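[Q] Does anyone have a clean C-alpha cell version of this?
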Amino acid sequence: MGDHAHQLAVLAKIHHARRHNDEHEFMNHIADDAEFITPKGTFKGHAEIRKWWQDKDDLPDWEEHWHHVEGHHFRRKGTAKKLLLTIHLVQDVWLHDGKVTKVHVHTA
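[A] Here you go.
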C-alpha cells in the first residue's frame, strides 16, 4: 500500500473509532507526543488527549472524505451544533509513520 493510501486508511480507522467510541483503537493511531489544538484548548500527549476524548458534548459531524493538502497534511470539514447555531469547522491532521502527530480544529 502506498504512503498516501496508508495515511488515508489510518484516518479512516480514526474516524471509525471516534464514531464508535473505541478509545483503545483511536489511541493506537495517536503518537505519544501528539498535540490536539481545539476550540476548547490544547491537549498534548496521550494523558491529555484521553481527557479530551471524554468530552462528547460537541462531537462534530465530520465528512468522512479527507482532502490531501500536502505531504502528511490532510483536511476535512464538518459542523457542530451550539444551541440554535450551526458552526462550520475545519480539521487539519498531520501524520508521521502511520500515527497522528497534530490535530488542529478551527472555525471555517
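[Q] Thanks! Anything notable?
[A] Residues 3-19 form the longest helix (17 residues).
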